[in-house]
Amino acid sequence: MAATDTIQAPVDDQPPSAVVRLGSARGGWFRQVGWRHIIGLLALAFSLFPILFVVSAALNPLGTLSSSDLVPSGASLENFRKLFADTSFPIWFLNSMIIGLLAAALSMFVSACAAFAFSRFRFKGRRAGLLGILLVQMFPQFLLIVALYIMFAYVSDLWPAVGFNTRTGLLLLYLGGALGTNTWLMKGFFDTIPKDLDESAKVDGATHAQVFFGLILPLVTPILAVTGLLGFISAVNEFLIASIFLTDDSAKTAAVGLYGLVSEERNNNFGVFAAGALVLAVPTVALFQFLQRYIVGGLTAGAVKG
Amino acid sequence: MARTDVPVRTTTPPKPRLGLGADGTASPLGLIIKIGVLGVVAAIAVWAAFPLIATGNWIGLIILVAVSALIFYVYLSPRVIPAKYLIPGTLFLIVFQVLPVLFTLSTAFTNFGDGHRGSKDEAIAAVEGASVQQVPGSTVYTLTLATDGDPATGDIVFLLTDPATKAAFVGTADGLEPLANAQQSADGKVTSAGGYEVLDIGQISARSADIVEFSVPTAKGAIKNQGLSRAFEGTPQQAYNNDCDCITDRTTGQTWTANGDDGVFVDGQGQALAQGWKVNVGFRNFAEVVTNPVIRASFLKILLWNIGFALGVVLITFGLGLLVALVLNKPELRGQRLYRSLIILPYAMPAVAMMLVWRDMFNTDFGLINRLFGLHVNWFGSAPSSMFAILLVQLWLGYNYMFLVSTGALQAIPADLTEAAQVDGARPFHAFRTITFPLLLVALAPLLISSFAFNFNNFTAIYLVSEGAPFPPDNPQAGATDILITYTYRLAFGGAGAQYGFAAAISVFIFLIVATISVVSFRRTHALEEIN
Amino acid sequence: MHSTRLSALSAVAALLLAGCASDAGADAGTRPSLLIWTGGGAGGEATQALGARFGEENGVDVKVQIIPEDLQTQFVTASQAGRAPDVVMGAHDWIGNLVQNATIDPLQMTDDTKAGYQDLAIKAVTFNGQVYGMPFTMNNIVLFRNTALVPDAPTSIEDLVAKGKALKAAGKVDEILALPIGPTGDPYHINPLFTSGGGYIFGTKDSGDFDPSDLGVAKPGATAAYAKIRALGEGGSGALKRSITADNILSLFSTGKAPFMISGPWQLPELKKTSVKYDISPVPPFAGGQPARPFITVDAAYVASRGTNKALAQEFVTNFWSRPDVGTSLYAATSSVPALKEALATVRKDDALVGKVADAGVEFGQIMPSIPAMAVVWDPLGKAEAAVVGGADPGSTITAAASAIQAQIK
């Protein structure tokens, strides 16, 4: 079995574990691929069925959330019409996309730089710094709101261009979290790249910047794509900070705007909210589709050979 | 295997000590980018400096100059290479995370919270302002706002009409006088008066601060405006007296004496006025955390579940995520891209809404889960089932994240390594266990630790799904699925107003616990880090 | 030499960029402006429209911002940071907290203005003898019944349960009553039953204000009431269930699965979209019990102490927000009962249901306490309710809740 595997492209061989366990005497197709469909479909079912309720609520003209009615009492696109006609959703959506893409790109870059330093250089305070990044993230966010608010009240007075209700201000705030989980994630990946690679490049006269931009970054394209996507999703879905930061209707992100529709305790706007949540998921899926080619197959087998 | 901390050696010739090309920025492109970036930094610094200078904020200016100088030094110096990569993220981290954390921690030593947010002077002003009442039997005047002289700079005056008699008055900072030459509308409102400029709404708005300050003194109190067209004679019922450091009620004679330890005004019976102020309380909040009987009774139980929850979430999400990533990581698999896109969909949905959907699915009588499996389980009615439900929701919310990261990780692992193993004849599972998985751990161990730390304080996961339920009938404070942070929230914010100082003190304890756990596990990654 | 030239270049770039940036900065309008914060939902949208009306009438730029999450806390935080709006809209039970944080000003209402409002509305916004807000809508819960299934309103809880049970036995409905409880209870919705069974939350002082030192939850009446509630619970007749929540009552009632629903007029806009036939009556009492008293909540407009344009804010709140046409517009959006008598009279002509809600409130309603001590009651009392509905012993459960509440009232 191992012998047949080696004939295929090297990338294919990485998950051979289950083949051994499940590879019974069935046909070759099933042993190779078929069982993967079964697990894939199960995972898909698990992922998707709660979302069916959201779809159902979005199509249901009666705007409540209740899993007792998986089949809506009437199917219509009324909620979608309302979403676009009666709310500022198009503007919110645009804001979310701008902030999401910029935050994803910038924080990816910032944390890749930091991860490179943490992985490739040995300097004083390195491990303390890594730990510090982690510890700061652990502080409960909802306690920080007051401090952030007071701080930005000053900032808004001095520099309104980056104060409350501005995209730039929110972006800066999000960059505060760039040196966080993503740095740890990327550092882990940088560590898997053999150091002999940069050593030999340096012997050939490359500077540290050339090593970073020319050698390391292309090698970790998959993880750059992953962190980019994660950054996009978290910026688009971030609500706690955005909701205190953006109060102008035209400045809101979609997450803040949509929650405004259901914020009243006795709300009945869930259908419109559900419609908005679905529309908001579309760009994420599209972005993932686009990034998949970098995540998968971004590497050629020989690239890492030192 | 492990490398010692040898500075990275370069083979390029010696460089000038300071300057744009100093650290070996060899290519012209690199130089241009560097100039551009430093130019932007300088531009931002100059732009940011103007308001600081205008407002006389010299400390801010010094910090700005120092930070800009630091940035220039770091990028123009041939040394401090790591700093070149760390400085952008670090600056953001310090400003937007570290400073707020420090500020919040400093409140742990105060009684900061609802009713104790401002200074003593603000509290006094609020008490006096809230006690202003209309002088009994006094007139409510029809008001026209005007100025004595130029609308932008002249003194504010009230042009007043008694609605009953239509008699007109002018109220100034000196008092109330009859107004002789007033033109009045049908309802008595003064429309113009010689020597005074009647203000339009724009002018009123521009003078808003002066109007708030202004009042017409009278024998029994003062005339204040209420809106733009009415004024009344009012008097504060309660006033602060500096001699006794107390507040006295004019009508009843009751007094409330300032208590500087608690930041409140209290009367003889110990009843405090609503408006208090912020004072330092030293370690009192910390002492309360340690001595609070409710906390002591439930702490250990909550801590154990808290650790179990965080650990459990990391293990199951990583386990399932990795499994699915491995299974789908085969190019021959048709629809591979579609599978992947749809599997990450839960991560793209708003988590708050999805948690509510899940809570609804666990409903005893109407929930999908009971109906699907023909059960009648009250999921949030017993501790094990409630814990199971919470973990299942977190698995759904989190496994796709781990799936995504593992998929990336599997791609980044040098394929030649597994290839080599298989050429050596290693069985696939053996190859996975000995080569792929250890490498995955190198890549993902830091992430798993940070995921643990995140989930340790995952407030919404508990709060929106079970709210901590089930609660024993005799203890509404500590539920079986409460974690420390939800428990803290209930103690500090569930009662009469938010107690930020107390909450900050508890979070210091939580912080110490989770930090200890993380530091210990972080130590163990040392070996992983140096694997190649 | 080389690097000097480059440094000069970057300095030039810096100045150019700085120039662009500062140009873009200042553009302050000179028109007077008023900033209003309100919560989301239908009321938020209606407030936006009304704000625009005030703006047109007075030549003011009115900005209405919807704060989706935790408006009360955000308003307090913003006030503390010196960035408060001029006006904030909120429920009357916020007043205690807003006053202790020195964030809202008392209003001087003339007797004429006061006389225009329902008495309970003015009572609700009065705190420590001062009126703080201009009320606009008030709400209380009532009994909705499916008239196709139950033509006549039940006269008592026992009657209601008997009718519901008969329908359930006949297979016409699945549930007896849709009354939200949920895993952690809902003291707001159970209050009519709690009071009818002999319970109360806080006693009142001679002045009419609630007295935090008289906690009814610790009294025998509360235990008696909870014993009656337990008999309706999961181990009893099954009329009350923890599986019924605020999220599913409307679908239970509108699909005919439950013949009765106890909820408020905020359900009316959605209910009108369905085909169910229904009517409204007061929540009935237990047979031979005390009156069943629903809580009355009042929404009001407040003038922020630290707003930038206080005179305009006072004008908006006292002279504009108290207008009958404003009251009817808000009714149109929210289906809530107008607090203003004149607006209620107008609305009542077209909408008999809102009239019935208002009458039930006037006859039986009880102002929801706004004293800060009330905030510590909700959570323990709700959990006790859920436990008792699930079958826990009423006596020990309510005692534990009472001691937890008492420990927190300072």
From TrEMBL, chain A:
Gene3D superfamilies: MetI-like
Native organism: Asanoa ferruginea
Coiled coil: none
ABC transmembrane type-1 domain span: 93-291
An example Gene Ontology molecular-function term: ABC-type maltose transporter activity
InterPro entries registered for this protein in UniProt: BP-dep_ABC_trans_perm, MetI-like, MetI-like_sf
One Pfam family in the UniProt entry: BPD_transp_1
Stated family: Belongs to the binding-protein-dependent transport system permease family. MalFG subfamily.
Keywords for the protein's UniProt record, in alphabetical order: Cell membrane, Membrane, Sugar transport, Transmembrane, Transmembrane helix, Transport
Main location: membrane
PANTHER family given in the database record: MALTOSE TRANSPORT SYSTEM PERMEASE-RELATED, MALTOSE_MALTODEXTRIN TRANSPORT SYSTEM PERMEASE PROTEIN MALG
One annotated Gene Ontology cellular component of this protein: plasma membrane
SUPFAM superfamilies according to UniProt: MetI-like (SSF161098)
Superkingdom field: Bacteria
Transmembrane segments: 38-59, 91-118, 130-151, 171-190, 211-233, 270-291
Recorded topology in the membrane: Multi-pass membrane protein
GO BP field: maltodextrin transmembrane transport
Cellular localisation: Cell membrane
The protein, known as: Carbohydrate ABC transporter membrane protein 2 (CUT1 family)
Automatic annotation (TrEMBL), chain B:
Keyword field: Cell membrane, Membrane, Sugar transport, Transmembrane, Transmembrane helix, Transport
Chief site of localization: membrane
Keyword Membrane carried by entry: yes
Pfam families in UniProt: BPD_transp_1, TM_PBP2_N
Topological type in the membrane: Multi-pass membrane protein
Domain ABC transmembrane type-1 positions: 303-521
Single GO MF descriptor: ABC-type maltose transporter activity
GO BP terms, alphabetized: maltodextrin transmembrane transport
UniProt-annotated location(s): Cell membrane
Residues passing through the membrane, by range: 31-50, 56-76, 85-109, 302-326, 338-358, 437-456, 500-522
Top-level taxon of origin: Bacteria
Record-level GO cellular component terms: maltose transport complex
Function: Part of the ABC transporter complex MalEFGK involved in maltose/maltodextrin import. Probably responsible for the translocation of the substrate across the membrane.
Stated family: Belongs to the binding-protein-dependent transport system permease family. MalFG subfamily.
Protein name (database record): Maltose/maltodextrin transport system permease protein
UniProtKB/TrEMBL annotation, chain C:
Spans through the membrane: none
Key word Cell membrane present: no
Entries under InterPro entries matching the protein: Maltose/Cyclodextrin-bd, SBP
Signal sequence residues: 1-26
Record-linked SUPFAM superfamilies: Periplasmic binding protein-like II
A Gene Ontology term for the protein's cellular component: ATP-binding cassette (ABC) transporter complex, substrate-binding subunit-containing
Domain of life: Bacteria
Transport as UniProt keyword: yes
Gene3D superfamilies: Periplasmic binding protein-like II (3.40.190.10)
GO molecular function: carbohydrate transmembrane transporter activity; maltose binding
Sorted UniProt keywords: Signal, Sugar transport, Transport
Biological process annotations from GO: maltodextrin transmembrane transport; maltose transport
Any Pfam family matching the protein: SBP_bac_8
Family from the record: Belongs to the bacterial solute-binding protein 1 family.
Annotated protein name in UniProt: Carbohydrate ABC transporter substrate-binding protein (CUT1 family)
Organism: Asanoa ferruginea
